[in-house]
Fold these 4 entries.
Entry 1:
Amino acid sequence: MTRDGRSLIAALAGIVGARHVRTALPERITYARDGLPTHRRVPGVVVLPGSRDEVIAIVRLLAALGVPFVPRGAGTGLSGGALADADAVLVVLTRLNRILRIDPRNHLAVVEPGVVNVRLSAAAAPDGLLYSPDPSSQTACTIGGNVAENAGGPHCLKYGVTATHVLALEVVLADGQVVELGSLSGEPWGPDLVGLFVGSEGNFGIATRITVRLLPIPRAVRTLLADFAALRTAGEAVSAVIASGIVPAALEMMDQSCIRAVEDSVYAAGYPRDAAAVLLLELDGAQESAVAADAETIAGILHAHGARSVTVAADAKQRERLWQGRKKAFGAMGRLSRDLVVQDAVVPRSALPDVLETIARIAGAYGLTVSNVFHAGDGNLHPNISFDGRVPGLKARVDEASGEIMAACIAAGGTITGEHGVGLDKLRYMPLLFDGDALAAMRAVRRVFDPEERVNPGKVVPVHACREWVGSVNAERGTRNARADVRSDFRVPTSALET
Amino acid sequence: MTERGGFEGLDSCVHCGFCLQACPTFLATGDEADSPRGRIELMRALEAGELAPNDPGVALHLDRCLGCRGCEPVCPSGVSYGRGLEASRALLAERRGTPPLVRAALAALTGTGGDMRATRLVYALARALRATGVPGKLAGWGRLRFAFGMLAATAPKDGGRRWRSVEVGGGRPRANLHRLPPPSMTSPVLLFRGCVMQGLFPHVHAATVRTLEVNGYAVRDAPGQVCCGALHAHAGLRGEARRLARANVAAFGAGGDADDAPPLIVVNSAGCGAMLKEYGHLLHDESDGVGQRFAARVRDVTELLAERGPRPGAPIDATVAYDPPCHLLHAQRIAAPPEQVLRAIPVLRVISTPDAAQCCGSAGLFTLVEPEMSRAVLQPKLASLAQARPQMIVTGNPGCVMQIGAGLAAAGSPIAVRHPVELLDESYRAAGYYA
């Protein structure tokens, strides 16, 4: 270990206490992946601050030393976004897990970034309120991570993604400055800085306090399960539902492979195993009669568009089971094969039937298993590719197939991520969508917050593809160009894997 | 043992992280290395030889795992975390040996040092000390004082001073019972006695026998039985666990009537029950599936009672909190039967705290060898129990009785912790079943 490394560790320990600084290789290895385990980066040091003040002190220390750092919540992200390299410090925010305030009269809450999504809704429930964005990982993921990724979830179809629900932020910028963005009544003036920060994938700093909007728990809810004999029919039914003018709270699709994985698990929800696809729809509102009427209309539309059956959840318990099955589907993919790549792309809703068939064709051509579980109402696809990483050459084939799927989505008028973010995983697709000028503009925005590009370096914008890097076409490997700006090159080379 | 010794159970982990919030140690530290997903990374690296079993960074976090298996029932991919953990601990024990404290505790409590007389003496002394009432007075948070609290928590408790059995409908409760038909058939079952249960909880064994008999089971003894081996397996001492398993298979094998299927084996300790049900895995390579067949005969006492109703007893006017032992709820997936047993007691109010399913931090020898983490895991449970204010806590595992009991005593709470069959037994006694 270099002297720089040792003094950094000592200084970090001085801030948070030695037990909250993780330096041993095995400990750092446990932080080498997120929810998309095909990416692996072993961080140089892991630090777990316990308070906002400790976060600020850490960021100021790292600014003084010019050391890069990466904020991380629960590590359930799906783009390799919360990984740090060996010369960076991983700042883990799980201990900042206090709900600071719930204001039931003004329908808002103030939380620390490490609060687990579902715990906020649980805490607000006695006041008849909930925190609406509900990513499938909501039982594990943190609100801070949701802010960084602008997380979505099934109910974002009607209620909007995380950005819709964040009112104000206290942010520690890369240089240690603490700034307030937004206010309880939205952005007080000028550009929407909260909107800019939400979804910045940890590139703009660390949010230490997050003020979010809470919504009333809907008084009337209907959850419908429709099953289809063909994927295409299900895709067409999605467009028919939306065309009806009724906006469902959620409209999700799962294909047969997903259905079976879930039905084999503890989250078995009673989805029909022989269905080619199921749609899970929710309708909600304040009036029981209105929601019931909508449900009837929608059931009629589903039947008219080829649903073999439409069932309505009989009670809250069955509704919960239907949702648990959907939300844990991604985690159940381990039943199909030991390795998994989950993709995230958006296509125009009307293109769903064609794109689903294209994906199936690509999977067939590469001899891969693809399972689809996704937010159909938003056209937000999640093809899951299951494979066995021990088979030589298979991972390369998976990467090629992923690239083809992504190209097909772009060709259909879509984009490369709906909610998982770019992180490391989508860097290679950014030049497919943006030219050098556009990428350079993104980078310029980032530099307003973080001129040295020290926070979560190497993610989101493939800097080698930016205009100022013309000549290099290898965007995928362009994970770090800010070296010159970084004054310290401390390393903790305690690993046999690294040397 | 399977070819990969249990590591294959980890293969289906896809790193989703849905286990994180089910892990008591992750909740205590917020550190991925103290989470199931982080430990799976460590275990996979151990199996692959990328990390050494004597690396302190590996050992610290695997040692700090309670083995509560709370991560298993929430895992969508059905990862067999417990098997991977035991395989890893076997590697650790092989490389660095067994810590002296663990050796000493195993020898004293389970007799596997080879000297059963010494173990019997240890328990006799413990019971004598317990009878003086001194340990209860010394109970506290320090390592030794917590141990005194644990010992005090094992004492038989008389509920009579805290509540009265209620007579309903004006008549004597037993009057109702004569209307119940006698159990149609009497099934023989063999009682698994275990080591700590036999040494410190003989009153629970007695209650088990009595309540089972009321419900039509004839409880018999299986001579020659030994400790189940759970503490050994958790400590990575698989050889000793297998030796004990073979001894138990032999002792219980001969219990049946010549031509009939061998009788079921009843166990009233969740930890032992979970281990006995794992004999199929433990003795995987033994001839003709003896372990598997043994495991298939094992039932928790609450499973047997629930199967027969159980017959209702006399009312007890009290509020109790049921706290499911991890090795019953997570490892054996037994959720309803203990509550069915408690429902056989009229008037009794059974409540459940929001985090009831979370480990209490006992985890066998864990409370002795990892006191700091153990207490950190216990704290949230004590806090929610303090809020719920039950008159008694009911749980079906000796470790949990001792851990929660010692925690309550240290916190100055008079609330007692008992086994569900003890309560049923009291209810049956009041109902006149034993008259």
Entry 2:
Amino acid sequence: MMKNLLYRLDVKGSPYLYIVPFFFLFAAFGIFPLAYTAWVSMHEWSLLAETHTFIGLQNYKDLFADEYFWNALRNTAQIWVLSTVPQLLMALVLAHVLNQRLRAPTFWRMTAVLPNITSVAAVAIIFGQIFGKDYGLVNWILETLGLGRIDWQAGTASSQIAISVMIIWRWTGYNALIYLAAMQAVSKDLYDAASLDGASSFQQLTRITVPAIRPTIIFTVIISTIGGMQVLAEPLLFGGASVTGGSDRQFQTLSLYLYEVAFSRFDFGYASTAAWAMFGIIVIVAAINYFLTSRLRRS
Amino acid sequence: MTDTLTRPKRAAGANAPAPSRRYKGFVERRPGKLTYLALTGLALFSAFPLYWSFVVGSHDNGILGEVPPPLGLGPNLFENLERAFGTIDFAKALANSFMVAGAITISVVLFSTLAGFAFAKLAFKGRNALLVMVIATMMVPTQLGIIPLYMLMAKIEWTGTMYAVIAPGLVTAFGVFFMTQYLGEAVPTELIEAARADGCTTLRIFWHVVLPVSKPAAAVLGMLTFMTAWNDFFWPLVVLTPEDPTVQVALSALASGYITDYSLSLTGTIIATVPLLIVFVALGKHIIGGIMQGAIKG
């Protein structure tokens, strides 16, 4: 009788023991801080002050009137477009090239993903040198070609291009591997039929592959959106660890602005407002992505 | 959202029979010289920035200003390394990074395997709802909770310590999802039922049946987790000090300031990158497999 009870307890109850560590730790260090951010955002809450006054939505009102916030949002969106569009297009083509009967396929895949194992801090520092004004490699090439030097950091467009190049370099191969995994599941018969009909390799990519792996493409767009909202190390280290992202904030991203408000001004309440606004933007963009693409799928 | 998340995995799972197409005949696209030329160009593009860090890190600053700049390796690498270790305590930083990444890896693999086992092979109330929660949380940008997290760490006086870096990394939703997927396919349900019929407790089933089977996936998850933890930047930067840093924080301290000492800071990137490069060269094949099985951007 006792043994039977223990057996039933083991079968019915023990599964929860196996999942509890995950849920407990994730709640404590993941969900709780994110949710508590909303509470902090409704206070005048400085790291240095003892008391925290509840001020309702005042921080949100301030945020929407804050030109630095809109500037950071604009920069983030521009960098996101400049980096994501070429990145995903190049990843598609690269995956298409890798999706052949290559010699040494593992070697080529490894070269594609090599940038991704390089730390984001290292990437930002190395490219900061390459895009340097005086000793940078890019400027040396430009000068050799007779095009003149560019102060990459000083301009809005040039600094954002430099940062986008860092992101493109680090993530293109990774996305290509995700696409490659999806492409390998596409029926080979489709390609056989297409090449019998005389379709070129490029036509096969656009007519067969892209429609077939569309769910994966949507997936990478959403993931890139979330990643794009969190770009921080590149602008921070490109500007020599300055939190403003250039003298005119020309490449300050939202994450960098959040970092500035929280850990340079120590205004936790207002920084939480910015964080919660970013969360809202991510949800909205992901939802738009999802609905647009699911409508596409239906039609 | 669930739908888009599971697709890449399903796609990867279906690639197993692919090698047989090799014998099927004429229609396979055969790559020509142009393909290999393009791929070689790509390989150079991928490797160049890393090579460049060695070029800059092996010269002294004066030579870098010359026209044309040096494109080969110089004689000053060891001198620069000595300088870097003298400027910032990189020995401590490397030890910290190994400790942090190691602890996070062990924890993520252990808890993901436990939870993956429960989700994939055990029946319990609320299982599906809880699994959907896991998948949904994969998309949650927890980085945005950084301010309360910092307040929490300050309250328990963990700021400036490695505990503060390790704690938020102890579990990942991706790890649970990854192991659930793998164990669902790799462990035959009949085997578990047979073990139960023989009177095995769930824990013994986990230990003797599931754990041995989970090894390949655990290894892949471990490598991906280690790399992510090693490269993590934002949170360690917030919660640690340059006096007791991880490698990435040390690197950022080295690159701070109005005038950047490029030889020094790019030598720093060599120190930060080489450990992972070694792992990558040795185990790259498995890392690639892991990414293709549906890794998530961190």
Entry 3:
Amino acid sequence: MTHAPTHAPTMAKLTLAERLRPWMPVLLVPALMVFGFLTIDSSSSWLTLTVSGLAMGMMIFVIASGMTLVFGLMDVINFGHGAFISFGAFVGTSVLLALGAMTGVPSLMLNLLAIAGAVLAAMVVTGGMGWAFERVIVRPVYGSHLKQILVTMGGLIVAEQLIYVIWGGHEIVITRPETLKGAITFAGAALEKYRLLAVVVGLAVFLALRTVMRRTKVGLIVRAGVENPEMVQALGYNITRVFVGVFIAGSALAGLGGVMWALYQEIITAHMGNEIMILVFIVVIIGGLGSVEGCFIGALTVGLVQNYAAFLEPKLALISNIALMVAILMWRPMGMVPVVKAK
Amino acid sequence: MMNILSGDRPKSVILSVLLAVILLALAFAPFLFPGSRSLETAARICIFIVLVASYDLLLGYGGIVSFAHTMFFGMGAYGVAIAIDRLGTGYGAMGLGALVGMVVAGIVALLIALLSLRVRAIFFAMITLAIASAVAVLVSQLSQFTGGEDGMNIRIPRELTPAFRLGEVFGTRVNGKVLNYYLVFTGCLVLFLVMLRLVNSPFGRVLQAIRENAFRAEAIGYRVVFYRAMATCLSAMIAALAGSLFAIWLRYVGPSTTLGMEIMLDILLMVVIGGMGTMYGAVVGTAIFVLAQNYLKELMGGLSEATSALPVIPDLLSPDRWLLWLGVLFILSVYFFPTGIVGRLRGTR
């Protein structure tokens, strides 16, 4: 009996570069922060800019996450997503103005309660709107991108005009609740309290979304649906119902983002949603359509680049996001975290 | 006749009559409808027919949605305005400005197309939206070049202004404005016939094949990206030329007349109402839309006053809210008349 030939498998050791490659997109955000630290002279202004960049990124992420999932699941591109942002902002602001007694007093508890009420109202309204939007506007045009873009754009116009009808044409000024005004000083840098809150909320939404997607059965179905909807359906799950759920949740998140943005800018207009949507599109494209993680990284990158660029070279700030998008699409044409489709 | 139309017949009696009426009305507009307001409307219809047809080249034939069409339109308009501003009044400056605007539009369109179309056609809509809004902001910021929000007045050659008098024909005073109108009319007619030639050429055929099934077209051996990029460039260049004519006609350019999102929506509506995927749709859609735009606002004003006793309804019907109803109309027409008026008249569903 002969011995089996001796095997001496050679384990090629991965070089550092090869090990890092899959993590490149994740490392982009810290790399950007380090780059900012090196190019901005004073560390206190760097800290201020970083916090506001992160706050902005988190808000964009909250808005964009729903849209990217809707696309991933059902191949539906919703240009009307901006309407939910505006409606969220207007409903939230109306509630906050009505709760003036709670926002005017310097009690953190009451202020947060008022904001929570506003957020809840905004999310309920935009969630309901999302349901109606899906039913009336998106449902008849499944499968045709061209018609989806046209029809959702029409929906956006109608929703925007309805805001004019309900709240009138003028912009509304909203001040932040008493305890969230002003800034705290940390390491010589002035950090606005509200921006810190925005970072916390955004992070919480991201972690919650990630947990739902990774740890629960619903998340499993959604992730499987993104990869291969037919197979999920064949296994007995009603993918349409899942999709409607995701659509509603995404619209509600856009409403939350709208309230956050309203308090960030302290002024709201009917076309604010449309303006933010441009950033959202950039984020969704560079993140990879359909990917929540990519969306998160993309949003933070956009927020940071915008704030650094505005500080370093104010003239460049206008086109910095477009330049960022071009650069990333050259580097990774499918976005930073491409979605694997089993087709 | 068929040669001029590139063999693309209207294929419907009503449509033929409609097109002939529109053509004759536009050709003799200064004599049929005297008065500066109606001449203004006629010139607007001419220019928008070209603009909408060039958009249809992209949307209806290529199956690509772009939101940057007004940007290219604006490039042509600003090209003429800046050239005249820098080089002084003259036909040379006018032509050079139009040429430069066209070339710049072509190059920008090519870059956008290469960046987005090689990945996914759906990126195109989002990327053009982002770029167009960035450019609109840029134009209002770079006020030393573009006049910012105020825009620029253009001093065109005297022969094209109302101050230049020629005499009377059929009881209508012929002045430079009429000459200017015929410049616009001829330019638009030529551009329209060129586009008709384009879409009925083998190139147009391939574009339609790609619209129907990009995968299959690629499999047959046509390079989808190349054809789509070409369509984008051509449509951008024609839009830029239409913009140049618009600037010469208005003797003014500004962000609101050339770059605004509202104009983009108007173009979308005209294409969809007239009928996607046919050049004649642009003619019918534009003529009806521009006329309705004036008429609808007055009707809504009347209705709003008539219902002023009721609670919400006057707000819904006020002339400022006409976009609301256009939006509703737009959604309904995408659902129920995806082929538009022309598709209906031709009997294809």
Entry 4:
Amino acid sequence: MERISKWLGARPHRPTVINLIMLSALLAIISSASLYGVIGGGAVLLAGSYFLFRVVNRTFASGDAMNFYQIALLWIPGVLAICLALVALLLVITNSAASLAYALGAFLFTAELAMLTLAGADLSPDPAPHPVAGGAI
Amino acid sequence: MDFPVFHLDLLGNRGLIATIAILHVLINHGLAVGMMPLVAAMEWYGNKKQDPRWDRLAYKILFFCFLITTTVGALTGVGIWLSVSLVNPYSIGSLIRVFFWAWFTEWLVFITEVCLILAYTLTWKKWSARGPEWKARHIKLGFALAFFSWVTMAIIVAILGFMMDPGNWLTDHSFWTGVLNPLYIPQLAFRTPLAAAMAGIISMFLILFFTGKQDAFRLEALRAVGVWTLVFAPFVLLAGWWYYTSVPEAMKDNLAVSLATMQFAEWQNKFLQIAVVTVITILLVVQVAIARPNLLPKVALVVPFVAILWMTGHFERVREFIRKPYVIGQYMYANGLRVGDYALLQRDGVLAYATYSNPLTPAEQAGLPAGLSGEQRDALLERIQKGKDVFMDTCSRCHTGHGMNSITGHLKRMFGDRPWTPELTAGYIEGMHYAQPFMPPFPGNAQELQWLGAYLEHLQNNTAPIPGAQTAGVIVNGDAAPRTATTDIRKETAAR
Amino acid sequence: MTEIPVPRDIPLPLPAPEPVLIAVLVIFFLMHIVFVNFMIGGALLTLHYELRGLKEKRYDKLAYAIASTITANKSIAVVLGIGPLLAINTIYTVYFYTANALTGAFWISIIPLVIAAFVLTYIHKYLWHQMDRVKWLHIAIAIVVCLLFLFIPLIFLTNINLMLFPEKWGTTQGFFSALALPNVFPRYAHFILACPAMTGLLMVWLFRRRSAQEIEETGFARVELMRKGYQWAFWPTSAQFLVGPLAMLTLPQVETNLHAVWAVFGIAILVSLGMAHLMFAETRRPAETIGKSFLPICALMLVVVSLMGVGRHLYREAAVTPHRELVRAKTQDYMRKVEEANRAVATKAPAEKTQ
């Protein structure tokens, strides 16, 4: 238990990710399309805006220091996550709860929400634990 | 079919072609067409950054591709040809006569490609050691190789496109009208980014083998190849959609029947779904490769690869569906008989013009009804023999007796376990092409339909595999002239 | 007496004038077969020297030097084979496809067999030094490669032989019965003997142009290596003077006269005598002058190979032509009937409409 809480506490984004996973699991179980749409969409909006805010900041802050490729590496994880999360949301909303598409959609949505949060966290001013894209080059 | 009939009763003849062809497409797209530009780009990038790690990686990937493409890749390419000429000699023989020069050009480009890949691989170390000028030359060689790999695909896709939709070729029989058919560009547009994305996935997989876990370069390489893959993935979807929308236009003649339209729509929808799933798996892998390259497991890369395999397989099947019931649209049916021959064959019968007969083996003669007199037995066997010949000449190119896509399987599905009497089956087969628009009409006459019925009834009680000419040989039908008569006939024809 | 089948041909015109297709077939087939000779001969010589290398290390190095040539030759051999295949498909459609179908199982097994042979060749070459500790396994691979390379040509040859004899089609049941046709084995022996001979010349060419340093690394003197090459070229070539005529005499009789074929093969024998003489002279030459006759030998070899190709084609034509006339007549007759039937349907259809 202690180890888990230690692991969670080590990086501030970890509890957020866990919370989001639980949230989407809950949404999947409730299986109400409108609720999923509103709450899930809201979560994507929130996490997405945070990422976009950070990435725009970072892009302009670095000025000419980064080339096109490095900027692309900054943007790709989050943008991909937003796109895929929206596709997943679409899948969930348009399919009935018992279908395979719904299950895959819910799974994809959970994964992408987590990825989006991570993408935002990687760019937060508090230096990220992993080598941020472009950093290694 | 006026050739001895090669037949595989378990795998099915189309199964043989499909196995070889899918393997070839995967290697050709993933390891040649898509991979060569990627390898050349890696070499170029490594040279630009003066980073020998890129150079080493590119060489390792190239060497792997070299080993596979010059063995399995090249030979399955020949294998498609050999298998098609075994299974449907009439169609490939006709295609070669129409497309001889396209294939000839393809061959010249292929020679160039092989020479280039030999040169590119074998000179890599030597030329790199000779200094920057030679290195630049070597990189150019790489891009030339990439270009020629793509050109071979571009030519062969034209021939494939022709088989689906011969367009105006039927009226003016020219080569270019065959090439410039309406499905050509969409198909090429689909295959090109697919090849590039496949190469990206495969090389990420290889990177995990060729670099160490602690190697910082592994992460850098995964990210870069991830970007490469990402650039092409959306185009797979876009071009797939383009292809999907241009098909109905191209096959409107075949889609006259609403049933066909419905079945086709089902196929197409499934294709689109699979394409979406495939592209999503590719994007997921790319996402992880870029955001957390250190967490990317090898097994994760197998998923999009399997998805691509699935999509390619389905794509090729849709392609096949589109050209049914023809093997060369409006000219030759899938059974290898020309559309123009039908009037004659339906009047006189298929067997009247068949040079060979396919002898029944002892195992195939088992299972006759009990209590027949010797005479009745012989008469029945004769009917079954003729029925078998009809089956071999008109059905066996797509259907087996008891294996894949078996005729008995279809009959069982439709008629269950009640006796498949000739009245029942012959009546169905006569109008089959109305109910199943992708089936060619029965080419023989009424008598042959009854023989075929007798044979199908026999198959209900006899599950022995049907041998092809490659094991049972053939019997030559009586109307053949001995060779000694040649001179007379020649004189005769000259006199005429 | 068995019936001779006369099937009908595909009713589409040839895509090019026949002489063009014949030129593609004969010329590219010869190029293809030369590289196949290098490939098979290379594999055989590699095995031979690797076995000798067990006792004397420098032979192992020589074996490696020869093995290094196989993989490039095999790629070129494959790619050059496609053009002739294309041409034979158009000129001999009926014959070729029939022979393929009758030996189908073995014909299609060419693909997996060649893939296996090639993959093993790569393993043998690229893991040569890594496998020093398991030399027996390495040699076993070489043996398997040789067996595969020796077997695959037999499939091709059986096909190309069966294709010439329509009267045998009705009695052929699979590959092995086609193998029993006369002439298969003499032709096969003729082909297999050519492999070490051609590879011998390749060895001379290879070691003639190697730098002094590379030669030194092998542990042999240049003259020794070249002499070995010439010996490989000479002895099998002399054996061909027995096997060649045997292959020629066992050719099944055909109805048309074969004077031209005999003349071509006769000239080929005379030229080969000259070539063999030069080869033998080269094996006796000292280091200073060895290689003097290399270019003339190659030129004569080119002439011999071309004559073989021409003679082979003339015989094939002689064997097939009478039958091809029958096929042509039958195809025309069939097409006439097709047209007539179509006309009948066309006139009937409007008549029915008016009724």
